[in-house]
Amino acid sequence: MMKPTITYKEVKRPVDNMCANGHLCSEYYRRNGPHSPQEAMRFFSITGEGLPKGIYCEPCLVIANHLARVKEKK
Length: 74
Ligand SMILES: [Zn+2]
What we know:
This protein has 1 helix and 5 strands.
């Protein structure tokens, strides 16, 4: 098993509320699906292969993690 190719650490909400993925971030995130309670959105600074550096919101981090795993399987 290879290690994930991206690393991340939790950071403060960006002042302009922009995710590095190019969208405005909402304040809350339903972490466990559409019917789960709203929780404060978390933000992460990501460094990884094939990803622009920057601060990503939590849902984008989940997607990036998933993509990194898919890439490793090839
Ligand atoms: Zn995002």
